[in-house]
Specification:
The protein starts with 25 loop residues before the first helix and ends in a 7-residue tail after the last strand. By secondary structure, the chain is an alpha/beta fold. The protein has a seven-stranded mixed sheet, with helices on both faces. The protein is built from five helices and seven strands; from the N terminus they run H-E-H-E-H-E-H-E-H-E-E-E. Helix 5 links the parallel strand 4 and strand 5. The chain has a single domain, classed as Vaccinia Virus protein VP39 (Rossmann fold, 3-Layer(aba) Sandwich), CATH 3.40.50.150.
Length: 189
């Protein structure tokens, strides 16, 4: 696992010890960032279930302004910090050892351009995260994008969300990427 492009190109990233995370493959990561293209430059990103930090670090390497990583697993939290240090990108990141669901339920501290959701597989956690985000959409800018990374078998039919709709989906072997756009124009605050 490595950084594919940008300021930290070629830097090898450490894996989280054990089997608690499922890192994104370089192939899927490259495809994801080809889809996003220049839309990543100067953007703020919320990387829920940060794992190794590979997605957020790739975004920073390619010019994202700031990434907030949320990770409850202590080994993964330490791995993100280690990988940020290895890439010299730690000044552009905030790493929080927190429960993603608790974090999303609180009053939003800021709006993000992109929210990346890649939870442990086969537990319905992505649906739970989307449900919470739909009820508390202040985390995303009005032209923001939510990207969900799951196994294709986890996706049945799309839930009906008040604030989000799918605008793209891609399959890469055992990885399914779902792209949601924010559709609500009115906010309660």
């Amino acid at each position: 696992m490595r950084v594919i492009s940008g300021s930290a190109k070629g830097t090898q990233l450490s894996s989280v010890p054990g089997k608690s995370t499922r890192p994104i493959t370089d192939r899927v990561k490259e495809a994801l960032f080809n889809i996003l293209r220049l839309e990543i430059v100067n953007k703020s990103i919320l990387d829920l279930f940060g794992g190794t930090g590979a997605v957020g670090i790739e975004a920073l390497s390619r010019g994202a302004d700031h990434v907030v990583f949320i990770e409850i697993n202590y080994q993964a939290y330490k791995t993100i910090k280690k990988n940020l240090k290895a890439t010299a990108l730690e000044a552009y990141a905030t790493v929080l050892k927190k429960d993603a669901f608790v974090y999303l339920q609180k009053e939003p501290e800021r709006e993000f351009d992109i929210i990346y959701i890649a939870p442990p597989q086969y537990q319905g956690l992505w649906v739970k995260a989307m449900d919470i985000l739909d009820k508390n959409p202040g985390w995303i800018k009005k032209d923001g994008v939510v990207i969900v990374q799951i196994h294709p078998k986890e996706f049945g039919k799309d839930n009906d969300y008040t604030n989000f709709k799918i605008f793209d989906q891609r399959n890469y072997g055992d990885t399914h990427l779902i792209f949601y756009e924010y559709i609500s124009q009115e906010r309660d605050y």
